[in-house]
Fold this protein.
Amino acid sequence: MAYQQRRFGGSNSSRPAGGRSFGGSRGGRSGGSRGPAKKYIHPSKFINKATTKADEVVYESTHKFADFAFGARLHENISRKGYEVPSAIQDQAIPSVLEGRDVIGLANTGTGKTAAFLLPIIERETGTQTSPTVLIIAPTRELAQQIDEQFREFAQGLNLYSALIVGGVSVDRQMRDLKRRPQFIIGTPGRLKDLINRRLIPLDRMTTLVLDEADRMLDMGFLPDIRAIVNGMPVERQTLFFSATITPEIQALVNTFLKDPVTVSVRTSETSEHVEQTVIEARDKTHKLELLTEMLKGADYDKVLVFGETKFGVQRLSDHLDNSGIPSVAIHGNKNQSQRQRALKQFKDERVRVLVATDVAARGLDIPNVSHVINFDTPQNYEDYIHRIGRTGRAGASGKAHTFIDIQR
């Protein structure tokens, strides 16, 4: 390989925020609109030697899925998905959820938390007549879609139904879905609030609330919508609260929304610690394109997520890779929901090796076995960087991340 990976002293050194950021994208944001200025991130922050699974104690589950008090059909659906031994969050959270307790689940991305809340709720809702009774709120439509897909697999043959309520798609279809009185409503805060205001979602009947990736919802500014939704629900309900971190803001939400909760913390280390992180120096954007194209032709780059800064830049980059003989798909704000879902499915099913995405489009994505994350453009801040590289090295697996920076002189 002709590209150079460079190391900059200690991996934890940093410079105060401010100044120009490293990366090839020097221009403003597309379409003449400018977002917040990038925070300076010292190149050393993009470098890390990964820890391995052997460096950590392997979790030993106290249950098998067959031990949980689920009905025969639900057990059959679980077995069909190949689930035998629960992950740590599943092993510890499912019994408390089945008991009807409020639960705080603290877990790294990719640890199986969706099944940890879906399975016990499905078991409890099986055979109930009242609907809807379960509200699941997620920060992004992609994550809500993934939760809905898992729900449909687990609930097959149980006469349980869901409505997916997210922005970017026809509200008319969602209104029709709600009129069928599904037991589960899964959605994003903005569209949920819209249909609640139209009196199409009866909050006063809800018995169960799930807030998934609560920290991400706060980062995206959804706190007022969430408060408005929760304030319309019965005080007597079960609340399940999942987050990667507990910040003072998150703790304030917990104190407000939950009653005598059980805390299940299975965080072992930052997901990023399992990711081998390096920087690649480039002279300019043309040089970056050359280096990226050369890299992606390597045999070990088998499932790669590439991050760009703008929706136009992401589409141009995907087109360039296609023209260079590297099939890729793109997701960004100019794609409608069906186009984004189609692109995501092609990548998940490994019909293409490369997915190029903006930060907003990629939030909440749960894509197994991503081998590499490549930051073609540097992120707005270090928190976004951690979120990006968390798409690989999931659930303790190893992963690799490369970040393009300007050549250091």
Notes: The radius of gyration is 22 Å.
